[in-house]
Predict the structure.
Amino acid sequence: MHDQGKVIAGIVIFLIVVLFPIWYTGAFGDFTPPNLDPVTDAKECVKDKATMTAWHMDLLNEWRNDVVRNNDRGPVLIAGKEWEKSLTRTCLGCHGSYRKFCHKCHTYADVKPDCWQCHVVPEER
Amino acid sequence: MNALVSLLAVLSIVVIAFLGAGAGLEVLFGVVLPYAAILTFLVGFVLRIVKWAKSPVPFRIPTVAGQAKSLEWIKHQPLESPYTRRQVVLRMALEVLFFRSLFRNTKAELKGGPRLVYGADKALWLFGMIFHWSFLIIFIRHLRFFTEPVPALVTGVEWVDSFFDVGLPALFATSVLLLVSLSWLIGRRFLDPQVRYISQAADYFPLFLIFGIASTGVLLRHFAKTDVAGVKELGMGLLGFSPPNLGELGLSGLFYAHLLLVTALIAYFPLSKLMHLGGVFMSPTRNLANNNRAVRHVNPNPQPVQVHEFEHWKEEFKEEIAEAGYKLERD
C-alpha cells in the first residue's frame, strides 16, 4: 500500500466522522427517549393521540388562520365536543405544563416554534 | 431501457416497504436492513479505499492546467500545477468543495452542419454544486434524529435553511433546491443525445433513488406526516443498540418507504460510482504534486517489473484475434 500513513489516517478520520452520532451522544447525552407526561386530568386530547402527535401543528395553524386571518373565532366541533380555537386557553389550558410536555418533546425533535415571541406561556401547573 | 429498469427498481423498493410495513415486518425494515446496510457501507467503504491505496502509482501523474514550477523568471501557477504539499491541499480543497475542474467544462456542438463550435458549459457545474451542497445540508439537518442533545450546528443549519419561513412547519430551501437540481441532472441524461448514449442503469439508478428519497422526505414533512418524535426514537434506538418496539410506535408506511430507499442508498454506496466521495481523495491525478524534476518518485512495482510483452499477448489471444478477423500491423 502506498502512503500507508496517510491512507490509514484518512480512514480513521472517515470513521470518526461517520460514527459521530454514536460517540457524541454516548459522551454527552442519552439514547433513551424522554418520558412525556401530558400533565392533565383529561383522558383524551382534541383528536386521537396518533393524529395529535403527527398533526397538532396543522390543527394550530388552522385555528390561527381562522382567528387571525378570517375573523372566525367560533368554537369548532371535533368528535362531538366544542373547542375554543386557542393556543393558550385550549391546549395549555388542559395540558398543565408547557416545559414538561410541549417543550420537552420539541427539544428532543429539535423544533423551535416561534409562537412564544408573542403568545404568553401560561403559568405551569 | 436503462432508465426504465432503474425507475422500476426504485418504485419496487417503495412498494416493498409499503407492503412490508403493512404486513408487520417493521423489524426487518426498521432494524435488520438498516444495520446490514450500515455495516455494508462501513466495511465496503474501507475495503474500497484500501484496494485503491494498494494499486501502485509508478509515476507522478497529476493532471495540470497551468505552468509548472520552473525557472525563477517563469511565473508558476501553484493552483494549476501544485509543487508543494500545501499547494496540493489547496487545489484539492477547491476541487472537493467547489468542483473547480468541472467549472472548466466545455461543450462541443455542431452548428448548422459541419461547423463544430466549442463553448463554455457552466450549467452542469452550477446544478452539480446546488445538488451536492443541498445534499450535505440535508444530511446535516437529519442529524437531529441521530444526536441527543442536538448540536448547535444542526439547529443553526435548520434555522438558516428555513429562513423563508413559508408554511408550518417551515419549508426548507434545500428541499426545493435538491429536487430542482436532481430534475436537471436527470433531464440532462434524457435530453442530451450524447449523454443519453453513454448513460447506464448505474447512472440513472442513484439519481432516481435520491429523487425518491427527497420526494418521500418532502411528503413526510409537509403532506403525509408521521410521528417525528417516534422517528427519532427509532434513530436513537438503532444507535444505542436497543431499538424500540416498532409495532407500538406505529410509524407510517410512507416513512418505511423513505427509510428503505435510504437503506438501499447506504448499502449501494460502496458498490457504485457514488464512491467518488472517497475516490476524489485517492485520485493520483489530483493528490500528487507536480515535482517530478525535483523529487525522485520510486516506482513501487516489484523490480524487475513483470511485463506482458506484445509477443506474449499475441500468442495468448491468437485464436480470439483470428476469430475477430483483426489484422495486427506487425504481422
